[in-house]
Automatic annotation (TrEMBL):
<protein>
    <submittedName>
        <fullName>Nuclear transport factor 2 family protein</fullName>
    </submittedName>
</protein>
<feature type="domain" description="DUF4440">
    <location>
        <begin position="9"/>
        <end position="113"/>
    </location>
</feature>
<dbReference type="InterPro" id="IPR027843">
    <property type="entry name" value="DUF4440"/>
</dbReference>
<dbReference type="InterPro" id="IPR032710">
    <property type="entry name" value="NTF2-like_dom_sf"/>
</dbReference>
<dbReference type="Pfam" id="PF14534">
    <property type="entry name" value="DUF4440"/>
</dbReference>
Amino acid sequence: MGAVMDELIGLEEELWRANREGDGAFYERSLRDDAVAVSQYGVMTKADAVATIGANRNPYLKTALSDVRVVGVGDGGAAVTYRVDVVALVGEREVGFSALATTVYAREGDGWLVALHQQSPLAA
């Protein structure tokens, strides 16, 4: 699982890079059409995620992943779970928060696509 693990962690870090940079097109390419994200803000579809990331209204300035684990999920699936520490620009202020996150990937052809992303905020 070593090469797969490295590939999935790299994809997860690229998703956070795209989030920081407002790169909705990367999300368009990286999520299955039926993908969903679940967070304290509710359930978001792929279309919602692409639009939200592209708008980049409260840009993430820094994202740091730690305690990363990859778990195989049947044939052609895997989950990446970790802690993420974020600094976002809200108005003129930098605001920090932390969450536990899991992304479930499905093997599609010779690549991986996000099927589900879930975040649970940690108490401040």
